[in-house]
Amino acid sequence: MARSPGHQKWPQHKVREQPVSDSVQVRASEESIATSREAIQVSEDSHPDRYYLPREDVRMAML
């Protein structure tokens, strides 16, 4: 499989993803927007961690 142009330019750059073992809750103004036990944490060099939650765990009407 060919490597992407970005990887060819910065081969030391890493993006890691791993399941979160705890429950993740997203809140805004004390209101629960999402709660999930199926979240994925994405860590990328020099960037803040990000969390991805399944759509069915998000109260889409609150967005």
> What are the segments in which pLDDT stays under 50 over at least 5 consecutive residues?
none
How much of the sequence lies in strands comes to 35-45%
- Tally of contiguous helical segments: 1
Helix content: under 10%
What gyration radius follows from the Cα positions, in whole Å?
15 Å
So what's the overall shape? elongated
- Mean pLDDT level: 91
Strand order of the largest sheet: 1-4-5
Q: What is the N-to-C succession of helices and strands?
A: HEEEEE
Total strands: 5
Describe the main β-sheet briefly: 3 strands, antiparallel
Helix/strand/pairing class, anyone? mainly beta
Number of domains: 1
N-to-C CA distance = 38 Å
Short account of what is shown:
The protein is mostly beta strands and 63 residues long. The chain has one domain (14-62).
3D structure, described in words:
The chain is mainly β and 63 residues long. It is 8% helix and 38% strand. The strands form two sheets. A three-stranded antiparallel beta sheet has the order 1-4-5, with no helix packed on it. Strands 2-3 form a two-stranded antiparallel ribbon. Strand 4 and strand 5 form a beta hairpin.
